[in-house]
Amino acid sequence: MKTTVSSPARVTVIGAGFGALSTVRELRKRDAAVDITVISPRAELHYLPGIIWIPSGLRTREQLVVPLANFFRRMGVKHVSGEVAGLRDGGRVVDVSVDGVASEVRNDALVIASGGRFIKKLPGIEHALTPCEGIASAERIRDRLQQMQGGTIACGFAGNPNEPSAVRGGPMFEFLFGIDEQLKREGRRDKFELVFFNPSTEPGNRLGPKAVRHLLDEMARRNIRTYLGHKLKSFESDKIITEGATFAADLILFMPGMTGNLWFDQTELARSPGGLLKADANCRVEGSDRVFVVGDSGSFPGPDWMPKQAHMADLQAAAAASNLLAALRGEAATATFKVELICIIDAIKQGTLVWRTPQRNIILPSSRLFHWAKRGFERLYLRRYQ
User: Fold this and answer.
1) pLDDT above 90: residue 6
2) Where exactly are the structural domains of the chain?
3) Less Cβ crowding at N or C end of the chain, within 10 Å?
4) What's the rounded Cα separation, in Å, for the pair 149 and 267?
């Protein structure tokens, strides 16, 4: 029998990143009365795509952190500043730690968009900086580059063997090419050796075969050495050890594969083999009632190249919002999302456009136009939340 929730229904959204905020906008677009509560540590959006420009000085922390008070006010959203500790009652109760004090938030429907967690099990991983952990990591990279007089800088990434889509390699190419360009601008590229490493022989294959060829050709053109096809064993303070080679590195930038948040363990929600929340084509967590997932937190049906990026989270947010509101009315979920990868791989003064769908894969050569398009998109995207 269908269950209908009387209006105004209470919807809780966990997170304050791209997926969570897109969900808020999509919910409000469809229902002016629904009661929305957002739970996150801070009422801020950290625009992580822009951290690639922090080492070169094109961006600062202040430009990438957007206070959300005005957005929440416009959307009629209540914000709870705290850390999620778990769920109860089939997801109807969210346990939250607010300044160390246990609290709870009740709901009639729930959207989980709290992102993912990097797998940090590799021995010696404390010697590597993980750029996408946040703005502070990019600032540490900036500071280390300023301090270095020369040496070897190694950039690489790996995946989650149990979750093909739980990898974020694109930003590492941008850091690699961006650092190369930055050192050239500073007139000291000849004092550094740049290295790229990856356990795959086709790094970036989720972008498509054409993109892999372009990326490897670009590395060769920029005199960037590569170590490909060997499983990573460990890091040390001055070297990287793989099953096929050991090589020196004075600065290591490494993006591990992703898995689910630790608090997922304090729930009974369905999990994928890689530790993410197992979702169906309607963004509903399998086996749950009115619990949906968006973005990096979820494992979704579809091709193994499905990206973990803001654009994909936006598409999933629209489907989740539509299906959530239908569920509150006692109706069946019918909305699905298209799978689309679109990105600009930036190198400070130019960028390469990559577009992939199940039907086609297009790559457009490096151009200054794409660099400025990426910066323009950032400006328009952030305006939504200012």
Assistant:
1) no
2) 10-116+260-328, 120-257
3) N
4) 49
